[in-house]
Amino acid sequence: MQEQAERIERGRTRDLLTGAQALSGQLGKTIQRLRKAYNLSLSELAEQSGVAKSIISQIERNETNPTLATIWRLSQALDVSIERVLATNDEEPFIEKASRADTPILVSEDGRVRLAIIGWVKTIEWLQWYDVSADPGGVLDSDPHQRGSVESLSVREGVFEVEVAGVVQTARAGETLRYRCDRPHTVRCVGELQGRATMVVIMKAAVME
């Protein structure tokens, strides 16, 4: 039994390494193609992204596995989504549909705030986003996320109030609040109308080394 378990584990490790190498190789090609499409030199991309020229060169030559923070900075400099940069095949169409029944719902302790998890499960460790609906007076208390994390609340309907470390700001439809969420924070639906908003959480891995 032990020998069989060891063989299975070795097989999993080999599959993971093979997958990582394939992803890294495609990543380098994608970065290089986008850089050339924008007519950027390695030095120019390094200056715009804050990633060292030598690191970018190694990525393009498939000589290193960059961190998510590095990929994030390059994607921002190249004005593309990180999902596009990480795509294993740029030529293959990608459309994924999630039904309402397949969308998990989180509910606040008071039962008045509901968060539909509309983000992609593959990005949950560094990027999360939710469709928020709240009854008047609803309160969502949240514990701190990873240090350096940032939350964005874009109000579509109603009025929301955000409190972080004793500081309170209010936003109405069409307005967005961005705030550090690596400390206790509270979102409230204030006023007499039901509130709707989109919440995006950028975790530490996306913005910090």
From TrEMBL:
**Annotated Gene Ontology MF terms?**
DNA binding; DNA-binding transcription factor activity
What Pfam families does the record point to?
A: HTH_3
Q: Which PROSITE patterns match?
A: HTH_CROC1
Name the domain of life.
Answer: Bacteria
- State the UniProt keywords alphabetically: DNA-binding, Transcription, Transcription regulation
Task: Describe the location of the HTH cro/C1-type domain by residue ranges.
Answer: 31-85
Q: Does the keyword Plastid apply?
A: no
Q: Which GO terms describe its cellular component?
A: cytosol
State what protein this is by name: HTH cro/C1-type domain-containing protein
